[in-house]
Amino acid sequence: MIALQVKDLQKSFEGLYVTRRVDLAVEAGERRLIIGPNGAGKTTLFNLITGEIAPDSGSISLFGDDITRTPVRARAHLGMARTYQIITLFGRDTLLRNVMLALLGLCKRRWNPLIDFERQTDLVEKAEAALARVGLAHLAHRPLGETSYGERRRVEIAMALAQNPRVLLLDEPFAGLSIDERQDVHKLLLAIPRDVTMVMIEHNMDVALEFAEKITLLHFGQVIVEGTRAEVVANPRTREVYLGH
Ligand SMILES: Nc1ncnc2c1ncn2[C@@H]1O[C@H](COP(=O)(O)OP(=O)(O)OP(=O)(O)O)[C@@H](O)[C@H]1O
């Protein structure tokens, strides 16, 4: 079963192709790593997959359903979640509230300006469970601004997991982390069950290679190498455009 399929996807900005005829087929349960030099079009590909930007042509499907024209929020309801490269959380709010806000963003209740957070017991429970999954249950009531960078990265993953995704897109989850923090995040990703398909963009090859089963190498918006971890690492083109740097 293919969880995420991208066919002949193209996107240009001001006449310059940033995504060129990209095909991608990620099997359900797979752990896929997307690599490529700076500016290769990795984040743009994620933005196209989540619907934050629209492609010029091509198609995207999630478990066989065409979602090319489906709005972002509806894609989230269909089981797609992502973490962001740039941390976009609320520093004064607690961890719990940050995760609840992420969940609230998917509900109709978000339109109610007078919403009493503490009374949304379903959201509290889901947010607590998500924080527990990333090992942060004990910090649920701490303001986010008083946590470490590594802990915040885990909150971001909790926010995505709280949505019960079937496909989770991780945009540089290890960026800026110490070796120990990278190992912590790596362990929590390993603990995510196979009913969640994961696609990761990452530059930190030590942990990312351990994670990856298959790797896709993008260069100037094109897939230039794809295969198992061993195949991609051994491919001379990989060294030429990426690993040699
Ligand atoms: N909204 C936009 N308008 C114009 N150009 C854009 C836009 N978004 C991205 N680009 C350009 O598209 C190219 C690919 O950018 P993208 O962020 O997808 O690369 P990336 O592989 O994720 O890079 P990095 O590893 O540095 O994060 C870059 O040259 C970037 O400047």
UniProtKB/TrEMBL annotation:
PROSITE patterns in UniProt: ABC_TRANSPORTER_2
Entry GO MF terms: ATP binding; ATP hydrolysis activity
Domain ABC transporter: 4-245
Record Pfam families: ABC_tran
Highest taxon listed in the record's lineage: Bacteria
CDD domains: ABC_Mj1267_LivG_branched
Keyword Chaperone: no
Taxonomic classification: Bacteria, Pseudomonadati, Pseudomonadota, Alphaproteobacteria, Hyphomicrobiales
PANTHER family from the UniProt entry: CONSERVED COMPONENT OF ABC TRANSPORTER FOR NATURAL AMINO ACIDS, CONSERVED COMPONENT OF ABC TRANSPORTER FOR NATURAL AMINO ACIDS-RELATED
Species this chain originates from: Rhodoplanes roseus
Any one Gene Ontology cellular component term annotated for this protein: plasma membrane
Family annotation (InterPro entries): AAA+_ATPase, ABC_AA/LPS_Transport, ABC_transporter-like_ATP-bd, P-loop_NTPase
Protein name: ABC transporter ATP-binding protein
Cited SUPFAM superfamilies: P-loop containing nucleoside triphosphate hydrolases
Keyword line: ATP-binding, Nucleotide-binding, Transport
